[in-house]
Amino acid sequence: MEVMVILVPLALGLGLLGLVAFLWSLKSGQYEDLDGAAWRAIADDDPPLPPPANVPAEKRG
Amino acid sequence: MLQTRDFSHYVKDVDGRIAHLDLAVEGVHCASCMAKIERGLQSIPDVTLARVNLTDRRLAVEWNKGSTLEPGQFIDRLAELGYKAYPYEPVRAEVEEAERTKFLLRCLGVAVFATMNVMMLSVPVWYGGDLSPEARDFFHWLSALVALPCAAYAGQPFFQSAFRALKAKSVNMDVPITIGITLALGMSLVETINHAEHAYFDAAVMLIAFLLAGRFLDQKMRQKTRAVAGNLAALKAETATKFVGPDEISEVPIAAVRAGDIVLLRPGERCAVDGTVIEGRSEIDQSLITGETLYVPAERGTQVYAGTLNISGTLRVRVAAAAEGTLLSEITRLLDHALQARSRYVRLADRASQLYAPVVHATALLTIIGWVLAGASWHDAIVIGIAVLIITCPCALGLAIPAVQTVASGAMFRAGVLLNAGDAIERAASVDTIVFDKTGTLTLPELDVVNAAGIPLEVFDLAGRLALASHHPVAAAVARAAHAKAPLPNVVEEPGRGVRTVFGGQELRLGSPAFCDADAEANQILSEDPEVSVVAFSRGEQRVVFAVRQLLRPDAAKTIDALTNRGIAVELLSGDREPAVRHAAAALGVSAWRASVTPAEKIAHIEALKKQGRIVMMVGDGMNDAPSLAAAHVSMSPISATHLSQATADLVFLGKELAPVLAAVDYSRKAMAVMRENLGLAIGYNVLAVPIAIAGYATPLIAALAMSGSSLLVMLNAMRARRGRRGAAPWK
User: Fold this and answer.
1) Closest C-alpha to B477, from B444, B501, B513, B446
2) Which residue in B54, B153, B177, B162 sits closest to B104, CA to CA?
3) Burial A14-32 (b: 16+ CB within 10 A, else e)
């Protein structure tokens, strides 16, 4: 039973950490565009790479 | 003349170095639009941020203040990318709504945290056969430590609302909730201090969490609707061309126009202000105001109103009233009156809670008195009384209606219907009579060529290309019908008459029959069908006359047929002249129609229908319809409607088709049925649970299970509102 004295506050602390994380994410506006966020995760946001400079132009295909 | 555009009205300053602009963007649907817009704007030098909000269809742009960038450039760039945009300024109501949604979400987070952790602490107490009394007290004290501050924070929405209601000497649903929560927490604390076996902290915080979920859904639906409505308003927000010097004009938002200013009104432009013509000669299309489709002449001294369309000549107008003040005082007066008459309607949720609150209080009180009379101690009697309060607390009831509304509003949005009022679904479900306006509602807002079949393709094509140079709406109809893309070179416009150019060695003309010397052909068309407008085209010796009119929406007849099949009476009430209305009514198979109706007569007619016990939906778009929209039990407007009508309408529909009207009726009926079922479920649950609580058998575990079970049940049932009455789209 004594172990409860450590484990229970620990569990509460973890829960509190989760709550703080939630409040932080809410405050930083992460729930403002849920539709967009879903797409941003899979969007191809890197611009196409420039062709390597050291390859001669005719070999770039 | 020098022309500039001035949108500086909308630019905000971030920290002295960065300028910020919000734009409402039309036509953003998917991730690729989002990427296209963001990349397109970020490629402009000095732009520091371009971020699209896909939920609200908005775009935030920030740029260095020192640069020469101007708001108009972003709008031009977006136009190049294929998107129409307009500076957007959130109205105060919308900002407040967003703040409130955020607050509810914060409360919900706290309540869910508390529920999970107090539950965790409660489980050993419920099952703890070998739990020592000291350990039980330890768990209870920890529960109190979590539950009390959390409830104090997360319960605020209910406490505040209950307090306001009591202050106004009335009772709402939040009063029993507040009493239940406070009593449960207070009693639990007393029990904990007295080393008792059970405490109710878990039930109290779970109750808050479930109720907040319902509130949040309700709020979210309203916030989304308001955001979309705000965008529509911004995208429709017409600009005015104002004289800033004797020979200098600037395009400004209407908000920046004052009475006494002089504005320029070019052919094809919609007037944004009320005022008097001081120079120029033209024709005015007043169909949005009066429903009259024939043009009226305008010259020096003529009054023009916001919402009218300038047809042929350029006018200078001295502004009498702009922005808020543009409405005819007669219409505003009628509108206020009609809105007052309607406010007596009570929403289903409010009606339910009005009955609910006294019943819950009385039951709990009678339970306590009953147990005391039966010989129980005050302490035991109060514990049982609290169990009754908790178990009857309108947890399922609080979720029953918002959950259905959220699901149904999503489904209706996909069918092209926007909800403007929170109770629009409830109102629309009971409709048995629909009164349609004609112009712009049953017909498409734009004109179309009706005799296209009899015109040689090559001639049609040339006329269409020539028509691209003109602002005249009739010419625009020809250009649209010809699918013209490439304008002809060197076109000269002769104000009030038409356009001409020399192409392929021949002179081409497009304009009034007299201008093209085609009076004979035009008169022949007009004698066959006096309802059309004509525009003539000449090429050398060749003469062609186009007949143009407003076409009925493509599915109007089918939709009206489907409505009639649902047992709904359909009527046509128009301000237009009799032959035009008769023609439309015959084409649609509507036998009840009236023409040349004034706004006051429209209201009178709707009032008369209401007196007969009919429940009327009004569908209209013109400013003359606004008062009758307000007078009807529920109202609907197409997206092309005037500002005022849209603001008054409970529902707004998108697109060219009339089918959304049918969808609105079907989805509302379905949603209302599910709401009633949900209320039935919530009441049925109470019928089962309350006797157990009154008898004193409701342990916290049973209360918790019963409560979550009933809430889940209504949530799952609410999902059924996603489908319309017949499973899928109305008649497709």
Assistant:
1) B446
2) B153
3) ebeeebeebeeebeeeeee
Nearest to B55 among A11, A15, A35 (CB): A35
Q: Residue B2 forms beta bridges with which residues?
A: B248
CA distance B609 to B633: 11
**Interface membership of B414 toward A (CB under 8 Å):** no
Active site residues of B: 437
Residue from B130, B184, B496, B494 nearest B310 by CA: B496
Tokens of B145: 């430590």
Cβ neighbors of B557 (< 8 A, separation 6 or more) are B587, B588, B589
Check A18 against B138: CB less than 8 A apart. no
B243-to-B258, B323, B448, B723 alpha-carbon distances in Å:
12, 17, 34, 53
Q: Can you give the pLDDT at residue B241?
A: 82
Q: HEC string of B651-713?
A: EEECCCCCHHHHHHHHHHHHHHHHHHHHHHHHHHHHHHHHHHHHCCCCCHHHHHHHHHHHHHH
Q: What is the pLDDT of residue A25?
A: 92
Cβ separation A15–B138 shorter than 8 A: no
Q: Are the beta carbons of A34 and B120 separated by less than 8 Å?
A: no
- Looking at CA atoms only, how far is residue B708 from chain A in angstroms? 21
Model pLDDT, residue B361: 77
Judged by CB atoms closer than 8 Å, whether chains meet at A33 and B135 is answered as no
CB pairs under 8 A between A and B: 57
CB B3 within 8 A of CB B251: yes
Among B30, B54, B142, beta carbon nearest to A33 = B54
pLDDT tens-digit series, residues B169-184: 877 778 878 888 888 8
The pLDDT assigned to B731 comes to: 39
Distance (Å) from the alpha carbon of A61 to chain B's nearest alpha carbon? 27
* CA–CA min distance B41, chain A (Å): 14
Model confidence at B730: pLDDT above 50: no
ipTM for the assembly: 0.74
Give tens-digit pLDDT for B655-709. 788 999 999 999 999 998 998 888 888 888 878 888 888 887 776 667 767 777 7
A40 and B52 within 8 Å at the Cβ level: the answer is no
Query: Which residues, in sequence order, are CB contacts of B495 under 8 Å at separation 6+?
Result: B267, B312, B313, B314
Q: Is A45 on the interface with B (CB under 8 A)?
A: yes
Asked if residues B279 and B316 have their Cβ atoms less than 8 Å apart, the reply is yes
Task: Please classify residue B648 by burial: count the beta carbons closer than 10 Å to its beta carbon, then call 0-12 exposed, 13-18 middle and 19+ buried.
Answer: buried
